[in-house]
Write a structure and sequence with these properties.
188 residues; alpha+beta; Pathogenesis-related Protein p14a; five-stranded mixed β-sheet; globular
Length: 188
């Protein structure tokens, strides 16, 4: 019921705004409404920097549920498998915080000398994924977005990753302990 209220509120029911002011259940913004817009920003940033395009891949169940949890709780979450998922909050999806730039450009900014240093090699980290959830902030019911972006290796390397990480395969499900109850049914 609450999810239906959020859907109606996000898509134009003014009568619900006055009736329910404490909505915080996240709503996935897949397709053209959110994820595609952020993916286009990544592609545009790479093109402007003269970098080759990355292949977009669908987000994993883990990424979707972790971003949902961050959106629902407002708390930071961590992705223990590869550590590449970067989540940020924005009022406008066109914002370009450092987390987005790291994934898009494959480099990180050192604020001490304003120089970017490589984080991901395009040859080895040739894919990316995007997850966007919309939430209403509690104070003024303004729409806010929880945006998760991640770089990925090839599909083959990803399949073998749990066997090659520093932690045992049995620990690769640790992320599930962080998931908020309302996000456990979210799927890619």
């Amino acid at each position: 019921m609450l999810r239906q209220a959020v859907v109606l509120l996000l898509f134009g029911s003014a009568s619900l705004i006055s009736a329910q002011t404490n909505l915080s259940l996240p709503l996935r913004m897949s397709g053209n409404k959110g994820e595609t817009r952020v993916a286009q920003m990544i592609e545009g940033m790479r093109g402007q920097s003269g970098l080759p395009p990355l292949k977009r891949r669908p987000p994993s169940k883990e990424e979707v549920q972790l971003v949902c949890t961050a959106a629902a709780t407002g708390k930071s979450v961590r992705e223990p498998r590869s550590g590449t998922l970067r989540i940020y909050f924005a009022h406008d999806m066109s914002e370009q915080p450092e987390g987005l730039k790291v994934v898009a450009l494959g480099s990180s900014l050192d604020p001490r000398n304003n120089t970017r240093y490589p984080v991901y090699a395009d040859k080895d980290w040739s894919r990316f994924s995007v997850v966007v959830f919309a939430v209403l902030s509690g104070r003024d019911n303004a729409r806010m977005y929880a945006i998760g972006v991640a770089r990925h290796t090839s599909a083959l390397k990803e399949a073998f990753a749990p066997m090659t990480f520093d932690h045992p395969v049995s620990d690769s499900e640790d992320w599930k302990k962080q998931i908020a109850t309302e996000c456990q049914d979210e799927r890619p």
